[in-house]
Amino acid sequence: MVIGIPKERKVREYRVSSTPQTVRVLVERGHEVLVERSAGLGSGISDQEFEKAGGEIVEGEEEVFIRSKLIVKVKEPLPEEFHLIRKDHILFSYLHLAAYPELTRALQKIGVRAIAFETVELTDGSLPLLTPMSRIAGRLSIQIGIHLLEKPGGGKGVLISGAPGVRPAKVTVIGGGTVGYNAVVSAFGLGARVVLIDINPKKLEFFHEEFKGRVKTVPSYPELIEEELRDSDLVIGAVLVTGVIAPKVISRGMISKMEPGSVFVDVAIDQGGCSETSRPTNLDSPVYNVQGVLHYCVTNIPSLVSRTSTFSLSNSILPYVIKIADEKIEEDPALVKGINIDEGRVLIKLN
Ligand SMILES: NC(=O)c1ccc[n+]([C@@H]2O[C@H](COP(=O)([O-])OP(=O)(O)OC[C@H]3O[C@@H](n4cnc5c(N)ncnc54)[C@H](O)[C@@H]3O)[C@@H](O)[C@H]2O)c1
């Protein structure tokens, strides 16, 4: 099969869906891999490295789409890319359709088979192609929060670890999945007072045991969320119900009761965001202010560490790219769950 690797077009999206190592594996299996010129530069990978691995460097995105059957991207196609997609393509990338109705309609109209990384699901409910980026975004959410809490950026001027005689910052993480766990590990490791809120009692049990009671666990009820948010310095939004629009667990009223200079990093923004006050931002202009609370709602956070993210993502997707290229999608139930749109039909629940 001819596999196309376009350069990402989203603002400051530095990742690429394949590395020379994964290209080599595909080429050795008899597939042809077209890589758009300079697609890897943002991740420190040169065109020559792709060529040495057996890939063909192609000028321009259009040629990649024209000559390929399978398009493997990182982020969802942008409106200016819609015209490049054909009915006979297979599109494999993050899609987050619940948050992008315009993309859903476009893919339906084209009739393409669109497989989303984030809904590929194993029998135990785990999401093998969301997890690698969630792990990274969770770690980064605390790094981002730490900087935003500094005074010059509009934050409170609070050091996460506190100081002798001064209390550490309070960090509240809503959603104890992959993003949440990694945010908690980082915040806890830095000495913050950490609260974890989840709707699933098993998650609360896990965090209670894992951190030996030193992370406060709270069930997800609006009044308890409000209480915890009131004196939190940093809040991380990390909820997910697979495929559907994120539940709005934070209201505008809750935000208005937080102290000015507090920070809210909504990692769940790619599924629409988990606060009434959330709206997507990009890495050029990542932060806005709602009633004194800094909101960071970037939809492609892992791009900040593009090299780590590219290698992590491409390794994870490779077995699935192989199955698609070998025309064995139907043999893998996890991959079948990833099919979001096929011949104009939406096959997942979006809200
Ligand atoms: N912005 C970015 O760049 C970026 C990067 C990676 C992941 N994400 C997003 O982060 C979100 C979380 O991803 P994840 O991999 O951690 O998901 P996950 O499925 O591992 O965890 C989600 C958690 O949310 C909990 N939850 C669901 N509804 C809840 C509610 N009403 N109240 C409290 N908890 C609730 C679930 O019980 C679960 O523990 C997803 O939307 C994902 O797409 C964004």
Q: In angstroms, what separates the terminal alpha carbons?
A: 35 Å
The CATH architecture of the largest domain comes to 3-Layer(aba) Sandwich
Count of runs of 4 or more consecutive helical residues: 11
- Spell the H/E element sequence: EHEHEHEEHEHEHEHEHEHEEEHHEE
Task: Extract low-pLDDT stretches.
Answer: none
Helix content: 25-40%
Q: Mean pLDDT, nearest integer? A: 98
Strand order of the largest sheet: 3-2-1-4-5-6-14-15
Bound molecules: nicotinamide-adenine-dinucleotide
Total number of distinct structural domains: 2
The structure class reads alpha/beta
Sheet with the most strands, sense and barrel status: 8 strands, mixed
Tell me what the structure shows.
By secondary structure, this protein is α/β, with parallel strands linked by helices. The chain folds into 2 domains: about 1-110 and about 305-345, Rossmann fold (3-Layer(aba) Sandwich); about 130-300, NAD(P)-binding Rossmann-like Domain (Rossmann fold), CATH 3.40.50. The chain is built from 11 helices and 15 strands. The strands form 2 sheets. The chain has an 8-stranded mixed beta sheet with strand order 3-2-1-4-5-6-14-15, sandwiched between helices. Strands 9-8-7-10-11-13-12 form a 7-stranded mixed beta sheet, with helices on both faces. Strand 5, helix 4 (about 100-110) and strand 6 (about 115) form a beta-alpha-beta unit. Helix 5 crosses helix 6 (about 180-190). The chain is elongated, with a radius of gyration of 21 Å. The structure holds nicotinamide-adenine-dinucleotide.
